[in-house]
Give the backbone structure.
Amino acid sequence: MRAQFVLAEIGVGLRRNLTMTFAVIISVALSLALFGGALLMREQVSTMKDYWYDKVNVSIFLCNKADAADGVKCPKGAVTAQQKDQIKVDLEKMDIVETVYYESADEAFKRYKEEYGDTAIASVITPDQMPESFRVKLKDPEKYKVVATAFAGRDGVESVQDQRDILQNLFDLMNGMNIAALGVMGLMLVIALMLIVNTVRVSAFSRRRETGIMRLVGASSFYIQMPFIMEAAFAGLLGGAVACVLLLVGRYFLIDHGIALAEKMQLVNFIGWDAVFAKLPLVIAIGLLMPAVAAFIALRKYLKV
């Protein structure tokens, strides 16, 4: 009988505040969808870093005749065969180095023509203008500075470049988008909490006579408050469910179909469905608990029993 009464009171409360309940559901859904999206974005950035950092190299570009003629980057002239051999030996001695690959000027020219053959500048570039280089694969890409310190400014070395710098701007952009999503999520969360508190206040005021009678017949405070808490929890649960649907639909249309980023950006290792499904229980749990806790705190102020 008590369970039926509580359920009946929940239904009455939801019907009386249908518009505000709907607003709570939408605001909770949007805030949790942004929360889940931010978590997935962070995991995507981490996945891309692990994927690309494992593939990028440290490039040691050697001085050629053009650099020597310039007299700025290579004041001591073009690299000699002895200097190249010594650089290779020193690289292979380093514990952090996994592999060392030498790229000649002809190989660099061929690769440049394959990548930029349609550009105007590619038609005037000659093999002797291309720099020789060592492509160094590190066991730990984070230790790039060890190589840079050891070889930058060395005779025969024009520059030392970490290819991670090329990707870092992309990662910084994605991290910035992630922070923006968290900021909007925080704003939506505050709006959702304000709506929940206001909904509870209105509901408690509209049923003050019933709660007063229940108090007179000996009902406990928790039993009186339970319908209000359950109403907020139910609205939050619906909002969490909607947020889960938004995350699933977003993953489906953004990556697999619709925009189909997986087809257009095949070099990007996108997160899989398992990552999305792993976040759904957390979204549901927060959607259920957050409104319930907010309602419980609000009732201590607005429901004097």
In short: DSSP finds eleven helices and four strands in the chain. The longest strand covers residues 97-103.
